[in-house]
Design a protein that fits this description.
Blueprint (H helix, E strand, L loop, with lengths): L1 E4 L2 E4 L27 H15 L4 H8 L3 H10 L16
Antiparallel strand pairs: 1-2
Amino acid sequence: MCVNSGDRWLPDVTMAKPLQGMEPSMYRTTRVRPLAPGPERDRLAAELRARYESGASIRTLAKETGRSYGNVHQLLLDAHVTFRASGGAQRIVS
């Protein structure tokens, strides 16, 4: 299904149907917002880096900014972040 956006028709991603077995939160419900290289991207990458280094998770940053996990991860890569290990607290094996 498409929606009329002024003078052109665009796919209506809010009407997307999930693949079998997928939770509704696992498929896109918002339009992609590309972020071209330049000062705005650099500013956002620096802001995300500061928040990530303060302890925020990539998923939290993605949700708060309305961007995908992959987009936030790429911005953090571009900002030269040293990523934390995934999986929460490490267990001590005795």
